[in-house]
Write a structure and sequence with these properties.
By secondary structure, the chain is mainly β. The protein contains one helix and five strands; from the N terminus they run E-H-E-E-E-E. The protein has one helix at 10-13, and strands spanning 2-3, 21-23, 29-40, 43-50, 55-61. The chain has a five-stranded mixed beta sheet with strand order 1-2-3-4-5, with no helix packed on it. The longest helix has 4 residues, at 10-13. The chain is elongated.
Length: 65
Amino acid sequence: MKILNDNTPTSELTQVKVGDSISNGIGTFGEVEDIKFEDGDGFWEFTFSLIGGGFIQVRKTRTTC
């Protein structure tokens, strides 16, 4: 089971696939049903929907020059 949170490197977040078992490390866990990605102003947001309900959301701040 992969633990995902704001400290997880972006490269690891992009490798998560539907069917993977994930957790946020604080009580939410399950099998990934769907993955949504949002490219916002200065951030990337990953939302992993879980089978049976629930989701894990991770927001990463983009470094810009």
